[in-house]
Amino acid sequence: MAANVGTIVPMMHFRHSDGRSPRLPPLRSVQAFEAASRHLSFKVAAEELSVTPTAISHQIKTLEAHLGVRLFHRLPRSLKLTSAGEAYAPHVRRAFEKLAEASLALRSDDVEGQIAISTTMSLAGQWLGPRLPRFQKLYPDLAVRVSSSDDVADFAREGVDLAIRYGFGDYPGMHVAWVLDDYVAPVCAPGFAPDAEAPETLLGAALISYEWSGFSEVDPSWVKWFRAAGVMDGHPGQIATYTDERMCLQAAADGYGVALASLIAAAGDLESGRLVAPFQVRLKNKSYYLVCPQVAARQSKVRAFQDWLLDEADMFRDSAIGMKFLDPDAAA
Question: Would the N or C end of the chain have less CB density within 10 A of its end CB?
């Protein structure tokens, strides 16, 4: 039994005195531990690995018996890693990451086959999707598979080559390329447009908001927009909130109210005239980044997609809509 858990290191570094490698723990048990240590839930780990919570619990007990230490505190309604589990988890996670990188490196390096992309539901539907036919025309032998989710992609388990994520660019250990900055502003149907010189009139208007998975107090809100517009007194009335930005924009286009929405997501509707953005005041939001494992960034198909994506982003910024709404100097 290990006395000093703080000195646990990956077991592949050890050798017996006769030069033999140590007996590795059961790999299914290690996989179960890795998932359970991330989620701190046997149930969620079981859903991820398509097994039962009982099977996860059994695998953890097998691993604990092999290692001679307890890895979890089983609390009434949750799990907590023991000190041994906390020391062991990062080494296990890195081992799985290395295995995923090695597997990625063996894939074909030709610009053919399939490229799997994960991105947010909003970007997939409103901005990326309409542009993808141009990429397919450039690379007809490369099939594109897009999965849309607001959750961060697991490259190894989901078979994803790259992701376009919405954040601040802090993705340690990953290849990261900035794509676009995003801004939010009020948008509405042309016939619903309020007085552009009097933002305070919106205090009594029907307001619409979009709150995505992971939305928090650091993200733009109607309260922050009113403050940036100089409306310091008073509070907005009832706000209809959507978790799908497409529904938020559709509600605004149908005349149900004024939506505080991404100007990237709304770009197509602004260009067609279905929506207008009556106020100059806009708030800086997060940015879009292309993210992938370092080894994947060296693949021809990933390089080809990144080059194309960054070119599309440049063209979008240089378009009439981009120059009007994505000017950083105009943001609050």
Answer: N
